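Work Package 3 (structural annotation) set out to generate three-dimensional models for the target panel prioritized at the project kickoff. During this period the team completed the workflow that converts sequence records into discrete structure tokens, so that structures can be stored uniformly alongside our sequence database. As a representative example, we reproduce one entry of 136 residues exactly as it appears in the project archive.
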Amino acid sequence: MASNTVHLTPKVRFAHMPLGISIVAGSPQPPSVLPMFTEQAWAEIARSLRLSGRELQILHGVFRNDTESAIAAALGISSHTVHTHFERLYRKLGVSDRIALILRVVEVVLTLTNAPGTALSCVCSNFAAGRCPLPD
């Protein structure tokens, strides 16, 4: 297996993933990592995962690497309520922590961008430009 290949599930294989984020807790982050997905992509993520508007807002906080307290302050709700949203998101998406949540969302994005007739752009610029050395 090539070292630059990420296997998320047996059905999804992707390499050269230029997400531009670190998912290590407490690591420095750019001011906003939400531009890594377009508004259209976020809408498709929400539709595909059947997320409510509030769940999508919580997910945005995850991708900004915000703490539960920071998400709560940004949304004007209590940290306890944010924690409850996290628990429900984890259960809904079948994950157990933030890293698994991020990987689940990335998996959905990769699936959506590879779907026939999709309006979403591929997240890998090498693949989109036809320069990916990996076979389909």
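Helices lie at 39-49, 53-63, 68-75, 79-93, 98-113, 125-128.
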